[in-house]
Amino acid sequence: MLVQLRSGQFFTGNNIVDIIRSMIVPAMFSIGVFLVILSGEIDVSFTALAALTGYITTRIFIILNYEGPVIVPFIVAAIFGFVFGSLNGFLISKYRISALIVTLGTASLFRGIMMGALRAIEYPIIPEPLDALGEASLFIAKNPKSGLTSKMPVTVFILIGMFIIVFFIMKYTMWGRGIYAIGGNENSAITAGFRVKRIKFFIYSFVGVISGIAGLTRVVMMERLHPTNLLGMELTIIAAVVLGGTRITGGVGTLTGTFLGISLFYILENSLILIGIPSFWQQFFVGFLIIVGTGISSMRTTRETL
Fold first, then answer.
1. SS3 label, residue 254
2. 15 falls within a domain
3. For the chain, what is the domain count?
4. Any domain includes 245
5. Who wins on pLDDT, 282 or 49?
6. Is residue 94 part of a domain?
7. H-helix segments, the chain
8. Which residues are within 8 A (CB) of 196 and not within 5 positions of it... i.e. 6 or more apart?
9. Which of 140, 147, 206, 220 is the most exposed place for a label (fewest CB within 10 A)?
10. Which domain holds residue 164?
11. What is the 8-class DSSP label of residue 224?
12. Is residue 289 part of a domain?
């Protein structure tokens, strides 16, 4: 409300659309990170995986001069994401290596492949089906005062689809119950009959699929191929998931809370821009929110274990 009084722009249609648009890809990432943290593990490789997958997929279809159904590139991106995510899942579940160590290593591996082996560069033109999807919109919101317009991207349906699929998995399947059980107590989960290794492999493979689709979605929304613009978002996404109520040690959390956490981050960022706060102060406030949010979660966890 204070932001609205100060700027007069917060509740305008185009600003709301801008907030939703900026959240689409980070919210996709947050779904995957939610699954990992809920299981009591961590993943810092998902943005590098997404960037590599988006780059490889787009380059393949640029070379092919592809003009077919837009669903095909997304299927290919999901397959690449599954393969890369399975590498994390295999090392963590099979050899019980620390998830932080594995994902730090694979993050560097993915970046090295993209920037070294593939010599990734920016491409201003992407295949026509992807470009058409990026230009498509559900509606256009216009600010009556400034005349500025913002398009609600069709890609929001990809995010909604992910939310529905993961919500169903977590609420109605044994895989979802197993993730909660592993995060609560892995030994108890084994005793209860959950196949812990398979579930962990599933988590990281599935996160790879989500990240692969998110990487290509970013390319679509930018309408250009930029190999590095996703890198560096990891800690913000992880903090947003924890701020949304997912316990950092696992076992407790909801998908709805995760969406509220990521929404809070982007609403705060948008609000600071509207009231004219300099960029370095924006970083301060976001960092402060991360510390407070994760600190509260840690204190709550400590009290529960006493």
1. coil
2. yes
3. 1
4. no
5. 49
6. yes
7. 2-7, 13-38, 46-63, 71-95, 99-112, 128-135, 156-172, 174-184, 186-191, 196-222, 234-243, 255-274, 279-305
8. 93, 178, 182, 186, 189, 190
9. 147
10. 9-231
11. S
12. no
